[in-house]
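FW: tagging you since you asked about this chain on Friday. Here's the raw sequence from the shared folder, copied in full. Didn't touch anything.
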Amino acid sequence: MKNSILSLTLILLSSSLFAQVWKSSENKVHFFSEAPLENIEATNTTSIALYNEENKQLAIVIPIKGFKFEKELMEEHFNENYMESEKFKNGKFKGTLDGDIDFSKDGTYETTATGILTIHGVEQKRTIKGTLIVKKGTLQMQSKFQIKLEDHDIEIPKIVFSNIAEVIDVTCDFSFKPQPKKK
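HL: got it, structure written out here
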């Protein structure tokens, strides 16, 4: 995780030492899988996100082991059998926020982020819709999108195929605070 955070920081800060960088202070990534026998859902609050206002670069790292389930056995199966979290420790998104946002004005903005979503070691170019809320010097990013398991080579054994949906609903909510500018 430390290497991922260091890499994110270097990427975002490399364009300009004087750019306004926003760092997530509170995060919530939630996924939900509706299936006939049992719904599966988990929440992760251990993610980190950085946004560079000048070059519009957005980087997010989500530690896979940070997802917490209602049932301990589900969490174990998720990490060991499906996500192989010892091998693929993080989910990542690195991209650019599309459009122009006036961060000096409070408001709600519909936008998209275009970049590379990496899950289970598989990179996929994605454009993800979201909402930005600028309010009293803070920034909140919210998004809801879907991930197809097959797009990221996540295999579901035939014996439990009916227990897990092939498409997972993901909801993200990141609260950012501006970081002090370098002088």
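FW: The beta strands are 21-33, 40-44, 48-52, 57-63, 68-69, 90-97, 107-119, 122-135, 138-148, 167-178.
HL: agreed, and Helices lie at 2-13, 72-82.
FW: great, closing this out.
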